[in-house]
Amino acid sequence: DINPAAPDSGEISYWLGESYFVRGGYADAADAYISSMRLDPQGVMAPKAMVGLAATMRELGKKTEACSALGSLTSQYPNASAEVREKARLESARTGC
């Protein structure tokens, strides 16, 4: 909040989202993941944030939104790592996409 233009603000928002997620704060996690992608749309954490967003949508009972996020991962982040693509595949199966 103090310096939203910091070069690592996208990464910070991603980790904030992870923190909220593991504590069950899914709505706050979704906001943080979205913030991460907006602050650094081409950053290394952006594809991870999209998978995290999909997981929060699943937890919030928003299957359509979760599947939509997972479905757009490869087009938005064609260079996503194999690890992120595998997490997306697992999340897709977990969600029932």
SSE inventory with pairings:
Blueprint (H helix, E strand, L loop, with lengths): L8 H14 L3 H14 L6 H14 L3 H14 L5 H14 L2
Helix pairs in contact: 1-2, 1-3, 2-3, 3-4, 3-5, 4-5
The class by helix and strand makeup works out as mainly alpha
Distance between the amino and carboxyl termini = 35 Å
Give the helices and strands as they follow along the chain. Answer: HHHHH
Helical residues, percent: over 70%
Number of helices: 5
Average pLDDT, rounded to a whole number, is 93
* Low-pLDDT segments, ≥5 res: none
How many whole angstroms does the radius of gyration measure? 13 Å
Beta-strand percent range: under 5%
Number of strands: 0
Structure characterization notes:
By secondary structure, this protein is an all-alpha fold. It contains 5 helices and no strands. Helix content is 72%, strand content 0%. Helix 2 runs antiparallel to helix 3, helix 3 (46-59) packs antiparallel against helix 4 (63-76) and helix 3 (46-59) runs parallel beside helix 5. It is globular. It starts with 8 loop residues before the first helix and ends with a helix.
Provide a concise account of the structure shown.
It contains 5 helices and no strands. The protein has 97 residues and is mostly helical. The longest helix is centred in the first third of the chain and has 14 residues, at 9-22.
